[in-house]
């Protein structure tokens, strides 16, 4: 499709090529979505992918009565998890995480004992992390234009920040001196969360906190190879202007100005710094365009700063990662909740390894049996051939012996033979 569009956009003029403005615009748009792939960051996304899916399956099972879900029910949920194939086959790949059994004519699935142990550990960490969640939620509200955020939009990113599913009860309801629920229309979709207590100690970004620790001026860091000369030049030019905190009211800034761009880059940087995995979906970030005064084409802004952000289209889902948050494919700093979740990932890999090992041994046994069958067949054929030759030789008086055959013909045609 792209090739046909490109071919239609090019025409010859005076033995040269003429590229119309519309075509150039298309090429520029396509180029803006391209970024040189970072294998280590791509590997980090790949590693997280299976964990995310299995974590969602875990939550579905835990939310089902008696914490045991019919596999047919999970199969219907596969579409929302962006999965294909049979749910039963997927669950059997992770025997350390999920246990499947047949009851009557229907398969059921529950979490393994080791998995349930990790679920309890995760809940314990969430309880200990409650003050941290309060601060994260307050900081998000402090960055919004009117200190309000739509609850349904927060729900889209709640797991990015580690918020428990019942954060409205566990965090918001328990801290009525900080948060308030506002709903003027009465519709569930219009419910908003409002900050009613501004804490100046929280209005400090990760960049400002780092600068304070090092006794320097707040500025962005660039995580690019030295060979990216032009990108480094653009970064230094961008970084030469004063840093603007995302907690500063943006109403005094002009849309499209360098100051507004600086503030927006700082805001996305701060949001990603608050997430567990230092990453987020660009599409979901775009849902907060009005609340955070984000540009309409957020993707273009992020791609303009490859030293700060890394944009990936892994699994056809545009994701932005904070480069400085990673050392290779590993997080520089791991939240206590991340450490627990990584244990889940290790358990998942252990189960997958066990599944693959079982299949390998089963295939090896199958090939061995096929090999034994073929050997037996060959031996039967050879034995059959030997018997038939022996029978023929005996019936024709050893004429299949070469020496006997020569003597026979010599006697038959040579008159001088005795």
Structural class: mainly alpha
Radius of gyration, taken over Cα atoms and rounded to an integer in Å: 35 Å
Show unreliable segments: 1-19, 22-32, 386-400
Distance between the termini: 93 Å
In round numbers, the mean pLDDT is: 80
**Helix/strand order:** HEEHHEHHEEHHEHHEEHHHEHHHEEEEHH
How much helix, percentage-wise, in residues? 40-55%
Number of DSSP E strands: 13
Please list the strands of the largest sheet in the order they lie side by side. Answer: 3-5-4
What does this structure look like?
- Residues 36-352 form the PORR domain.
- Residues 379-401 are annotated as: Disordered.
- This is PORR domain-containing protein.
- The strands form 5 sheets. Strands 3-5-4 form a 3-stranded antiparallel sheet. A 3-stranded antiparallel sheet has the order 6-8-7. A 3-stranded antiparallel sheet has the order 9-11-10.
- Helices cover 54% and strands 11% of the residues.
- The longest helix is centred in the C-terminal third of the chain and has 60 residues, at 336-395.
- It is globular and about 110 Å long.
- By secondary structure, it is mainly alpha-helical.
- The protein has helices at residues 2-9, 21-32, 39-63, 71-77, 87-92, 113-128, 130-143, 151-157, 167-172, 206-214, 229-239, 258-274, 282-286, 289-292, 298-303, 336-395, 402-413, and strands spanning 11-13, 16-18, 68-70, 98-103, 106-111, 148-150, 179-182, 192-195, 279-281, 309-312, 319-322, 326-327, 330-331.
- The relative contact order is 0.10.
- The chain is built from 17 helices and 13 strands.
């Amino acid at each position: 499709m792209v090739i046909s569009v490109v071919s239609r956009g090019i025409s010859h003029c005076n033995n040269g090529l003429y590229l119309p403005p519309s075509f150039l615009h298309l090429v520029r748009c396509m180029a803006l979505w391209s970024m040189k792939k970072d294998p280590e960051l791509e590997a980090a996304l790949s590693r997280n992918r299976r964990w995310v899916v299995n974590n969602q399956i875990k939550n579905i099972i835990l939310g089902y009565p008696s914490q045991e879900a019919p596999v047919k029910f999970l199969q219907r949920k596969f579409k929302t998890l962006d999965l294909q194939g049979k749910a039963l086959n997927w669950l059997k790949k992770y025997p350390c995480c999920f246990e499947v059994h047949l009851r009557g004519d229907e398969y059921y699935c529950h979490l393994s004992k080791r998995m349930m142990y990790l679920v309890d550990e995760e809940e314990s960490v969430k309880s200990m992390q409650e003050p941290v969640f309060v601060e994260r939620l307050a900081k998000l509200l402090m960055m919004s234009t009117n200190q309000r955020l739509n609850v349904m939009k927060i729900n889209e990113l709640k797991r990015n920040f580690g918020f428990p599913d019942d954060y409205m009860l566990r965090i918001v309801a328990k801290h009525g001196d900080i948060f308030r629920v506002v709903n003027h229309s009465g519709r569930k979709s219009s419910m908003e969360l409002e900050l009613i207590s501004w804490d100046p100690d929280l209005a400090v970004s990760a960049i400002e906190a780092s600068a304070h620790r090092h006794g320097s001026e707040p500025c962005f860091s660039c995580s690019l190879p030295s060979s990216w000369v032009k990108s480094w030049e653009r970064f230094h030019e961008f970084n030469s202007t004063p840093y603007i905190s995302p907690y500063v009211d943006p109403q005094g800034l002009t849309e499209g100005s360098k100051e507004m761009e600086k503030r927006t880059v700082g805001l996305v940087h701060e949001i990603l710094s608050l997430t567990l995995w230092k990453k987020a979906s660009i599409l979901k970030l775009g849902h907060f365009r009005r609340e955070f005064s984000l540009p309409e084409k957020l993707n273009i802004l992020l791609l303009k700063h490859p030293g700060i952000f890394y944009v990936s289209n892994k699994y056809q889902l545009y994701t932005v990662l904070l480069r400085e948050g990673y050392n290779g494919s590993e997080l520089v700093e791991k939240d206590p909740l991340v450490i627990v979740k990584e244990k889940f990932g290790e358990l998942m890999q252990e189960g997958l390894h066990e599944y693959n090992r079982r299949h390998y041994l089963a295939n090896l046994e199958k090939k061995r049996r096929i090999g034994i069958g073929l050997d037996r067949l060959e031996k039967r054929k050879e034995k059959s051939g030997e018997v038939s030759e022996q029978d023929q030789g005996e019936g024709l008086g050893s004429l299949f012996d070469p020496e006997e055959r020569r003597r026979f013909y010599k006697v038959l045609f040579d008159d001088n033979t005795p």
